[in-house]
Design brief:
The protein has about 475 residues and is α/β, with parallel strands linked by helices. About 35% of the residues lie in helices and about 15% in strands. It is built from 19 helices and 16 strands. The strands form 4 sheets. It has a 5-stranded parallel beta sheet. A hairpin with a 5-residue loop joins strand 10 (about 345-355) and strand 11 (about 360-370). The radius of gyration is 23 Å and the shape is globular. The termini are far apart.
Length: about 475
Amino acid sequence: MANVIPMKERGKRTQRAMPEQAVEERIHNFDEVALGYTKDDAIYEAQRCLQCDPSTCVEGCPAKVNIPQFIRKILEEDFAGAYFELLKSNNLPAIAGRVCPQEEQCYKTCRWNKADKPIAIGRLERFVADWAREHNVHEELQNIKKNGKSVAVVGSGPAGLTCAADLAKMGYDVTIFEALQKPGGVLVYGIPEFRLPKAIVEYEIGEVQRLGVKVVTNFVVGLTKSVDELATKFDAIFLANGAGAPTFMHIPGENLNEVYSANEFLTRCNLMKAYRFPEFDTPIKIGKRVAVVGAGNVAMDSARTALRLGAEEVHIVYRRTREEVPARKEELIRAEEEGIVFNYLTLPVKILGDEKGNVTGMECIKMQLGEPDESGRRRPVPIEGSNFNMPVDMVIIAIGTDANPIVARSANGVQTNKWGYFVTDEKTCATTRKGIFAGGDIVRGAATVISAIGDGKTAAEAINNYLSSDNESKKNK
């Protein structure tokens, strides 16, 4: 293999950096920040791979991608072969390559991680998927023999799309029901253009539809039709409707005019294209001084979006320290580079407003870290008498999401827990009602795209086993 280098040379190399837009340029546009590897970058990085056996990196991947094999194909400069290898385990490689938290998964179990230089698996995955799209390379569709069974998938986010694609390849007639006007779920309404271009999402959804998957939009399961009604028309159902209900702090002032949930703010900007107003008829008012409460990926997305929309100053307000920030490290660093102001060990206790109901500031209290809580992080404790006012004219609450109860209310016999999430068997995604399965955020709470992809794969296999065994039992009667 021409591109293989000696083991000694691999050990000398560090991880190849991802080319990015310059900070001074990207804060003024919504173009993708990370520019992607070139062919030379990809081969250089692939040459570092040790081709371990057993492959510890695969153990860290929820989708169980054969990472050494697709990297080997890159070394051979067989980029189409690498793409097909990815598709065996992940139908959304261009998306996962961009937003999957590899540092907590395959990077963490890569043997090079011990030397603090894991293989940049996500960047290689993105390179391969982008190359395939740019060269019009598609998965070769064999004549899929239909088995006469139909499956309904509720929700078109990563879990729903993955389950639908895998089932279609097995011969099932699959219909996805999506509540919004566009498929993609959190991929289209939640993640900004500068992190995940919507053209990429549309392309990979199109590849799923090429498998024969039908997508019905503007269909709110629980209102348009109930889960119980769908169960009379389909042989099995996969519930992947996400966790899209915003969480609030329940402090005074949250009903003032310029207070947004991150869900609403990002949906208006991403799905409804507010950032391209007046080309798109979705205006959005941006304050001069914006506070974003929370420090997860959604908070970073909200803060960086507000900055690009014209805010003069954007603050992240977080009750713990930088070490406890739950956002991806690279997104935290990018936010810092872009001039987002971080107010750590700070908790809002009241949002202040004028007589017209407009935000004028936020009363906060300083915090200190105490003993660890159930999450393993040190619990933030208020410092008595440390209250102060922060002058802001817009507040975005980005502290998490809850389960929307609409779908669950229409599914008799499908048990939910005290938070409203579906109760499932971890190994099969089966709910408490025969023939109904669930996965993604509506089971886990707000989690990662790749975890949702993993659930979609698990559910597809379990649904196939369930319907296949159902066929066998009927034959034996």
